[in-house]
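User: Let's play a game. I give you a shape written as tokens, and you guess the letters that built it. Ready? Here's round one.
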């Protein structure tokens, strides 16, 4: 074991030595990701509710204390004591929660390393060897979606998993120029393209069997009125007969994040408009504004791969083929950076070093 793989705290980790040991090139950054049990997470959440509430309401108690009215003064004393205890309880709940696991994800120009306590060695995936990316968009009931775990795998079965957009973004940049042209070439050659149980071919999109025992279903292109893709992992098809939406999930499916490119190609030939849209819900876990912008960017296709070697006709706002979309033939792609830069990478319980 090299010294770069020290299992201790951040001060004992030498990312540069770790990257040199595995030939991963220049070191970029390290993410510290903390995982809490449900009870610990609930305690932290309650603490973050109590502490800010006490801070916000305490000035009202101070105003009452400064009043010349004896009744108001007495109320202020009671409120000040109560809010002090509430704030202290919130801070105690936040401070006492200890993560069950702390992972360190080290990013390099040539790959990524995951260090997990209790494992014999690090998990290493080189970008050149990566073959698939799985992304899960978490959609809490009644709140906005956010990026959950992402997993990148290589051909030998090695994998790295991390929360938040940073791993997904790096994997898209590494995999996209190889995966997307291959998928489009297969479709153009008349071959069906499958993403797990989801199949896309000249006839339409075949959805997997439902958990309720229903059989798999083929939605023909001629039966579609429009297609919307939420954050690249959920397909919503509006039927031409106005029979309701037909939903297909691509969460956690290898390379399902790239399915939108094949759908756009096929839908353009069938005259079906495709749009990427934002999840329209309230923010969860009080995410930062830049985190919400990132989700919106994903929904609009901010990780945009446009292939310059051929142009196919796409349906525009009038649902006709007025807008040109790029087609892949020689693998030349343009990948636009996600908004927010490095500061948008981390989730609430993550830490950059």
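Assistant: Ready! My guess for every position:
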């Amino acid at each position: 074991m090299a010294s770069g793989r020290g299992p201790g705290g951040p001060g004992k980790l030498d990312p540069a030595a770790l990257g040199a040991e595995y030939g991963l090139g220049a070191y970029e950054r390290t993410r510290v990701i903390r995982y809490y049990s449900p009870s610990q997470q609930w305690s932290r959440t309650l603490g973050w509710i109590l502490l800010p509430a006490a801070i916000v309401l305490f000035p009202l108690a101070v105003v009452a204390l400064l009043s010349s009215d004896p009744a108001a003064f007495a109320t202020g004393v009671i409120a000040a004591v109560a809010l002090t205890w509430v704030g202290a309880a919130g801070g105690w709940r936040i401070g006492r929660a200890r993560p069950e696991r702390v992972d360190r994800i080290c990013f390099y120009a040539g790959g990524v390393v995951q260090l997990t306590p209790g494992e014999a060695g690090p998990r290493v995936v080189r970008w050149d060897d990566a073959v698939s990316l799985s992304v899960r968009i978490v959609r809490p009931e009644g709140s906005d979606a956010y990026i959950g775990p992402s997993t990148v795998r290589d051909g030998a079965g090695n994998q790295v998993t991390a929360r938040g957009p940073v791993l997904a973004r790096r994997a898209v940049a590494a995999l996209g120029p190889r995966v997307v042209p291959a998928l489009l070439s297969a479709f153009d050659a008349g071959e069906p393209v499958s993403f797990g149980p989801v199949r896309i071919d000249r006839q339409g999109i075949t959805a997997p069997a439902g958990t309720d025992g229903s059989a798999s279903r083929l939605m023909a292109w001629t039966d579609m009125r429009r297609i919307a893709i939420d954050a690249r992992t959920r397909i919503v098809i509006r039927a031409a007969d106005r029979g309701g939406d037909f939903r297909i999930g691509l969460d956690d499916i290898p390379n399902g994040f790239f399915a939108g490119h094949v759908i756009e190609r096929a839908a353009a030939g069938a005259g079906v408009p495709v749009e990427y849209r934002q999840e329209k819900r309230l923010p969860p876990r009080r995410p930062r504004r830049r985190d919400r912008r990132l989700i919106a960017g994903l929904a609009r296709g901010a990780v945009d791969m446009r292939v310059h070697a051929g142009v196919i006709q796409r349906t525009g706002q009038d649902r006709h083929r007025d807008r040109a979309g790029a087609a892949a033939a020689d693998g030349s792609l343009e990948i636009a950076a996600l908004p927010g830069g490095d500061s948008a990478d981390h989730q609430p319980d993550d830490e950059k070093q």
